[in-house]
Design goal:
Number of helices: 14
Distance between the termini: 62 Å
CATH class of the largest domain: Alpha Beta
Structural class: alpha/beta
Number of domains: 2
Radius of gyration: 24 Å
CATH architecture of the largest domain: Roll
Strand content: 15-25%
Mean pLDDT: 92
Bound molecules: 1,1-dimethyl-prolinium
Length: 303
């Protein structure tokens, strides 16, 4: 009887040690080692986002131009949500990570990360976010056209709006709050814009945080002016083709000249660039600031 009891205890103890060992294995990842090469520490992997994003094709170019592909580097497709939650985990445990990064975005507000230098200019020098419409939008809906010609904000305004959405607020509620708090800007953007009287505006966007923010703000301003605005989320490629074909009217999500460049090139005869709605954007690769010796994309091969 006693023996059996002992055996039981030993069994339970053994099992708990095993579980402890296993879980401690999985929850204590290795920290970044500055004295070791970065490649093997991240399995030569750049953590990316959705396949249709321009930053993904720019990063494929970077893999070629910086000779990273020949050194076994690869780009992992995921989503903005998956990438930023991976980033949060890495930061928590001071692990190494190389990711696709862009601004305006709350990731630079929330996490201690830095852009890697891009001496070959693969991601372009200065990006901007443009408003793009179908060629016939001006004649089809001159009122809304005028508004989109006049709409432009800055990375700070956009960043704050995105951050509120990130914190769980409904994007339409954020838009309403923004409108309330920025009467001067809204008046400027709607100057001489006639009332919509129910005229339809079909906006297209991709569910990137910047586009969610700008689409909801502009749609709400036009709704307040009496336009009947619909917003449709789609992948990048279908978004451009639907604007070119006229099934959608307008988007505020064109990152140019480089990031959305290939799509713009493809459809440029059928679309019009109305305005730059946000200047001072930036796209590239990023790492946590504690990866002190990794400062340029070139460092990924050497360090
Ligand atoms: N982004 C954000 C997009 C555009 C908006 C930089 C991730 C991209 O096409 O890469």
């Amino acid at each position: 009887m006693k023996k059996r009891f002992l055996k039981h205890i030993v069994g339970i103890l053994g099992l708990s040690f095993l579980t402890l060992a296993l879980t401690s294995c999985s929850v204590t990842p290795k920290q970044y080692q500055s004295d070791q090469k970065v490649g093997p520490q991240v399995h030569h992997t750049i953590t990316g986002i959705d396949a249709g994003a321009g930053i993904m094709s720019s990063t494929q170019n970077a893999l070629d131009k910086y000779d990273l592909k020949n050194n076994n580097w690869q780009l992992q497709t995921s989503s903005t949500a998956a990438m930023t939650s991976q980033l949060a985990k890495s930061i928590k445990y001071k692990q190494p990570i190389v990711l696709t990064g862009w601004q305006p975005h709350w990731m630079f507000k929330k996490f201690p990360i830095k852009f890697l230098k891009d001496p070959k200019g693969v991601y372009g020098k200065a990006e901007q976010i443009d408003t793009v419409a179908g060629k016939d939008f001006a004649t089809k809906n001159p009122g809304a056209y005028k508004f989109f010609k006049q709409f432009h904000w800055d990375p700070d305004m956009m960043g704050d709006t995105m951050y509120e959405n990130y914190n769980g607020k409904d994007p339409q509620e954020t838009a309403k709050k923004f409108i309330k708090e920025h009467p001067k800007e809204v008046a400027e953007w709607t100057k001489d814009v006639p009332d919509g009287n129910g005229k339809t505006v079909k906006m297209a966007y991709v569910t990137w945080d910047d586009a969610i923010a700008s689409t909801n703000v502009t749609a709400q301003i036009l709704r307040d002016k009496g336009y009947n605005v619909s917003i449709s989320a789609m992948e990048a490629q279908p978004m451009w083709s639907s604007i070119a074909s006229g099934s959608s009217d307008v988007t505020t999500a064109a990152w140019l000249p480089v990031t959305s460049g290939p799509l713009y090139e493809k459809y440029k005869d059928k679309v019009e660039r109305l305005a730059t709605n946000c200047p001072g954007a930036k796209v590239g690769l990023a790492v946590p600031t504690y990866m002190k010796d990794v400062n340029s994309i070139e460092d990924l091969n050497n360090k």
